[in-house]
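Note to self: the last two entries modelled the partners one at a time, which told us nothing about the interface. This time every component goes in together.
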Amino acid sequence: MQHVRVIAFDADDTLWHNEIIFERVHERYRELLAHYHDTATVDRTLYATELRNLELYGYGVKGFTLSAIETAIELTEGKIGAEEIRLLLQQGQAMLRHPVELLDHVAATLPALADRFELWLITKGDLRDQERKLEKSGLREYFRAVEIVSEKDDATYAAILEKRNTKPAEFLMVGNSLKSDILPVLALGACAAHVPYSLTWEHERSTALPEAPGRFFTLTHLGELPVLLNC
Amino acid sequence: MQHVRVIAFDADDTLWHNEIIFERVHERYRELLAHYHDTATVDRTLYATELRNLELYGYGVKGFTLSAIETAIELTEGKIGAEEIRLLLQQGQAMLRHPVELLDHVAATLPALADRFELWLITKGDLRDQERKLEKSGLREYFRAVEIVSEKDDATYAAILEKRNTKPAEFLMVGNSLKSDILPVLALGACAAHVPYSLTWEHERSTALPEAPGRFFTLTHLGELPVLLNC
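The predicted structure of the combined assembly is written out below.
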């Protein structure tokens, strides 16, 4: 591997659980609409609404909640009641208040790495929600830089590296999304370590197989990172 | 005035119109609920919901839309129909799609200042919405730094100045909100120019009168800034 000086981490489903919370909300959402439509129709329509609104809302719980309400009205042809919409609002607020549960090995690995590397956090989503999760996580002190961005593509990473005077050859990105954490970083010539999470939101799925010998790695969990870095 | 090297601008209601868009939406909101409650009750309840949710949602159109739906259900005791909630969703999307209208003098003043000072943008709100407005404004090229933050208090400004190696004595903040743009900046020892907007959201109102001779200025419009800076 190239000589890494800076390691950046994705947050949701890399450092702490996130998709599992959405998945539980999806289950309750399907139950709420079970009188009207089968699971597949509910899932497909909600996802279509989310994609249609993504450019406007961006990522995060607030946009998801708005799309869930819009979809519920559409799928019930306006028959859904205000009480059920209130439930969706409450569910969104419960997601924002949800405790942060770190993934295995995170609590031990980050302090060890912070002694030897400069650590950054690069995440997308609601600004305040991500800041709150970082505070709740107890990990804030290990990061020299925190970037909450609206999209994680080649241009985003290039701008962050330039702003922080960091060459791609010195940079390793660690995350669970091939699409957002791995492919754009490899495209810049940097290193990337993929740590798959058990669930992946449809929008983050990628079938592209990274071709970057010596720069792309797959880990079972974050605890394998020090071994990869020979430390 | 101190020797200013960096000028930072607030965005909403400093560079472009914003509160007027919320005000028009408020008018339609009052009409929607006019069957149930008088204007004062609607306004008071919506504002109370917004404040209660501010810590959770942060600033911006998405949080406002969620609070407006919650308030409408509360004020109608669940009698509001799905069609009316759909209208609120559409109104929120229309706000996000709204064209950016620059305030007078902004288009001519920023390029002139950008030749002589380092210009920054410091704004709060939805990440993606603020980025989109900045792109639509055509002003992006004049800013050397763009900071979209979840709160504008003393700690926020201190962190930005430190990160960008800028002393308070070199810094001038320009904005329409005494609470968010002026008072915290004066507290750090920097300069601040207040450019009042015709409308101010209740949450941004302040009765505190800045006491900072030689560091606090009030302007009628942004076109007065070059004169203040003797350029």
